[in-house]
């Protein structure tokens, strides 16, 4: 699992991805691809490690994907400097605390560019009051080393935050700062520096578009909050309750007054807008007030199903954010029957892997 973090090594791996993407989409008529790079190291805002108990010793491990063998991890240059600092500090503190180390099998780190850190300890046992007492001591011990972290304990059907279970991120995008509450164990963009570039790109390609914006799979409002400035109104949908609550908070702290989040799936929203069904979750939202000519989707790795694709075909402009080039390729084969690709961007969210994020803008054929 050794990795060379040189500029040459980074550029080589990125160039290989670009070549692979161009080959995959060679049958499509696409414009020139714009490429947005990542920091060479310390770019991951999250990191998860198994904890290995070897007698009195305790340390982080990962499993090598090729050999399947465990590898001891004492530092992890992929992750932020804050995570690396916490990794080094926490191990000796856990090692000599029987309450906190007993049946501990994993530690998750979640950091931000704003300097906040959340650490989750996962157990094969029930945790209770004694764990909370020792976790508070651990938090203070970390603070004495300059690491201000909130702690969460997880076990089967248990989640115990010592204080809070979230971090608050601040992203500077085109001279404006956006604030995002990000809850433990919910989806967020893994590479904040690249996420900023994605938001800047999305703002630039949507300037001047007419009508309102509809977003499916909006998560905590990452895109819709930044894009609200370009539209008269924004209506975003998300099915996960935790993400909806985060999005509602983020709307308030960013002083956004033209964005509403509805807890609906894409299919439910389509039934509602066609007046096929009524949903209590839409109480107070007048769908007739929206003229959504543009739709944005940021689906999971398995892409869009046929029903959702048919929904998208009804919109003038489609903005498709994808973390899986192969499902994007499959979806575009259907979408390009009604739309043409206007913009195609690559965002290196996942350096030194085979994965790369993309952003595609499609316009309906006249």
DSSP, total strands: 17
Would you list the SSEs in sequence order as H and E? HEEEEHHEEHEEEEHEHEHEHEHEHEE
The rough form would be described as globular
Helix segment tally: 10
Return the average pLDDT rounded to an integer: 94
Notable traits:
eight-stranded mixed beta sheet; 29% strand; OB fold (Dihydrolipoamide Acetyltransferase, E2P); Rossmann fold; single chain; 2 domains; 10 helices; 366 residues; alpha/beta
Explain this structure to me?
With 366 residues, the chain is of the alpha/beta class. It folds into 2 domains: 7-40 and 169-364, Rossmann fold; 46-167, OB fold (Dihydrolipoamide Acetyltransferase, E2P), CATH 2.40.50.1070. 31% of the residues lie in helices and 29% in strands. It has helices at residues 7-24, 81-95, 98-101, 129-144, 192-206, 222-227, 241-253, 266-273, 306-312, 325-335; strands at residues 34-36, 46-54, 57-63, 70-73, 104-111, 117-123, 149-155, 158-161, 166-173, 176-183, 212-216, 234-237, 259-262, 292-297, 317-322, 339-347, 357-364. The strands form 3 sheets. The protein has an 8-stranded mixed beta sheet with strand order 1-16-17-15-14-11-12-13, with helices on both faces. Strands 4-3-2-5-6-7-8 form a 7-stranded mixed beta sheet, covered by helices on one side. It has a two-stranded antiparallel ribbon with strand order 9-10. The chain is globular, with a radius of gyration of 22 Å. The protein starts with 6 loop residues before the first helix and ends with a strand. The mean pLDDT is 94.
